[in-house]
Amino acid sequence: MNNPARIRVIAIASGIFMALLISWSSITVTIPSGHAGLIFRTFSDGIDATEMPIGQGFHFKAPWDRIVVYEVRQNESQQKLMVLSSNLLKIELDMTVFHQPVLANLGALEVERGRGYEENVIVPSVRSVSREVIAKYLPEEINTSKRQQIQDEIQDRLREKLAANFIQLNDVLIRNIRLPQTLEAAIERKLQQEQESLEYEFRLEKESKEAERKRIEAAGIRDFQDIVSKGISDELLRWKGIEATQNLAESPNTKIVVVGGGDDGLPIILGNN
Questions:
Q1: Does the global pTM surpass 0.70?
Q2: Block mean pLDDT (10 aa), the chain, length 273
């Protein structure tokens, strides 16, 4: 026999289960990796800017609340800019900005700037800072000697501006700089002339060192000759002549030795093979 109380419990449990099944999507939320969620409380004050966002993974929520999901990993924004140098020449450049929301300030970012913060904050900030910085430099400095300095200055000023808008700046890259063609040609000529000047100075320095080497060598030869000439006497020359004559006389190629036939009484050697 059926028990009415048991049937009632089963019916209630089944009703609860069906209600949960139907409303499951409205009381749960799954935050994907690299994202965070902000709870919008419908019957309260909406999003609390001071509340930490919920992290990735599975969460329960009130069915009447909704979750605003933000990507919080690094993103890049690429900009094509037209700026003026200090002498008012137009310069085109491509810039890449790597950024991400500050997680602790995600609620304030949503309340004060919104999910379109890239177009509302990053793009105008990049344009403003780039124009302010590059306006202090000459075109030839932008594309040569001061390029890294300019990039660092843009990065420092842009980091400060974005931080005030709850955005973290990770890096700035200036990828391409396009100068007016006439200016590029002038810069190339200048660089070529500087290279030729350096090469000419190198040749002059090399020739100067070679001339100094030759002067030192000549001075050494002169000193050697002075020392040798002071140590040579007629007696020494006569003695060396006798030694040379003796060596020649003992050589198997010598045929005739005339003794006392030369000047100063030195022998004369005749009849070599």
A1: no
A2: 66 65 72 93 88 90 88 92 86 93 94 91 94 88 82 94 95 85 68 78 84 84 73 65 69 57 54 52
Q: Per the structure block, which two tokens stand in for 258? A: 């005339």
